[in-house]
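Hi support team,

I've been running sequence recovery on a batch of backbones for a student project. Most finish fine, but this one hangs at about 90% for roughly twenty minutes before it completes. I'm not sure whether the input is malformed or the queue is just slow. I've pasted the structure tokens below so you can try to reproduce it. Let me know if you need the job ID as well.

Thanks,
M.K.
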């Protein structure tokens, strides 16, 4: 899938009939918005990690691993956001990969109490927005497989999630982090789908008028 270079400020989405151009336009603005909220959520997550370490000093290795994974995902997202000349498939793929990494880690370390399922759901939806069915369907199957594997590992005791991380409804930091994640993903999905449907509707009306 070849990238179509253009300036998002000069592009008129309502005059174009090229779906790929619409997708690139959505991705350009989506990356910018998500990156800002992503950094805010990252700060909240780092704060929660330090609180966890203060309460349980034996979890230092776990905290370091989590921070390394989250920082790697953030660096990937920042890279594809700031490098607008990268091919579309790499930029969209980078966003989806960052979501998959964070979602999977959330399931492994927080089970069903974390944001893992929500993030994987956004991963599937955005793959359908940016790519065709031949790509988005395997993404859906892969996400479902990931969920089933992690569930099996936890049910059989291979991956153990402490009860303290499963019962966090009274933790203010968990609420703030969870709300930011939900806000980021909801805005991303809402804007993408609403925008594409709006442009499609306008162009269909123009077609009928011809």
């Amino acid at each position: 899938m070849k990238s179509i270079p253009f300036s998002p400020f000069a592009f008129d989405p309502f005059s174009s009939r090229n779906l790929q151009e619409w997708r690139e336009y959505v991705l350009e603005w989506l990356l910018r918005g998500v990156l800002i909220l992503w950094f805010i959520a990252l700060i909240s997550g780092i704060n929660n990690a330090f609180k966890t370490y203060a309460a349980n000093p034996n979890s230092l290795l776990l905290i370091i691993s989590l921070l390394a994974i989250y920082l790697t995902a953030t660096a990937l997202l920042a890279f594809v956001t700031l490098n607008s000349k990268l091919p579309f498939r790499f930029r969209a793929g980078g966003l989806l990969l960052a979501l998959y990494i964070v979602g999977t880690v959330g399931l492994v370390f927080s089970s069903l109490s974390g944001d893992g399922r929500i993030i994987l759901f956004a991963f599937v939806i955005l793959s359908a927005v940016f790519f065709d069915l031949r790509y988005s369907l395997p993404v859906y199957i892969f996400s479902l497989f990931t969920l089933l594997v992690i569930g099996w590992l936890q049910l059989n005791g291979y991956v153990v999630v402490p009860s303290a991380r499963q019962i966090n409804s009274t933790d203010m930091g968990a609420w703030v982090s969870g709300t930011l994640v939900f806000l980021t993903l909801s805005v991303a999905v809402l804007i993408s789908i609403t925008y594409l449907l709006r442009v499609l509707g306008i162009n269909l009306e123009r077609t009928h008028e011809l």
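--
Follow-up from support: It reproduced on our side and the slowdown came from queue contention, not your input. The chain has a mean pLDDT of 78. No action needed from you.
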